[in-house]
Amino acid sequence: MLKKLIIALIIIVTVLVSCSPYPGQTHAPTIYIVSVGLDYLNSEAPDLVGCPDDALEFGSCLSDIYRQRGFEAKTSYLVQYSAEADKAARDYPMADAILGAISGIPSTEDDLIIFYYSGHGDVDENGNAFLAAGSETGDYEELPMAAVFSALETKKAPAVAVIDACYSGAMAEEGGKSIWEAFASLFSRLDLRSVKVIAASGSDELSYMVPVFTESGEQESHGALTASILEILGWRHTSINTRTVLVSGCEKTVYGTVGYSNQSITADELFEELSGNWRYYEQTPTTNQIPVDIMLLN
């Protein structure tokens, strides 16, 4: 009788574990999304009008997909929007706020972190790549890419970082190292073992904003990398299905929706599909290799 009871318990435990959507885990993960976008309209830096919408739609798309599948998705938006952006807001995307949003994530090894950035990128005088974060006083504040990736690497959870540094290199001096050359050099120095990075361009390329049309024919502007990933994930650009998200204490409208999908995809598979269907020939997405592929959707 005792032997039969033990066998029954083993079967029950096996069934419960097998129901976990992520192999090897006994409970569903929490998904932490940090989505950053800046248009620089409150500075002298070149404008990137589509980048805040990139961040809002990317975060909303993933949040919707995960919630459809029964996962808890916690999304933080750090978005600088328009010339009247509130620089005193707690979620204004300055360097410390962005790094703080990452370091404050209470993740476990069963969870997943997704970091997204749309905005300028450039290279400092020492040849180090940085993201152009918001600034309280000047045009922008240098946020070293190394600091972002190191902050993600210190978390217990695996992480995927999507870097759509639009017009990256446009602010660099002629003849200087491009941001993506510095980016490649950074990868050779950092031992990223749990952070999968998908970046917008190759080492000798710029990255661009591209026109995207809604279902009713209205034109939007998005980073080429962002537009392509949203397409793969099933995001529909539309002015009919909208929702609002809170950005710096203000409600912002997100134009779009995601249809239901039961596809499973890893980070490597996402990059393979991205590369296989790429149609913006001025730039080529790049990625790094890590020991274990990360399950992005299951």
TrEMBL record:
One GO term of the biological process aspect: proteolysis
Membrane-spanning residues: none
UniProt GO MF annotations: cysteine-type endopeptidase activity
InterPro entries found in the cross-reference section: Pept_C14_caspase
Domain Peptidase C14 caspase: 46-234
Highest rank taxon of the organism: Bacteria
Protein name: Caspase family protein
UniProt organism field: Candidatus Ornithospirochaeta stercoravium
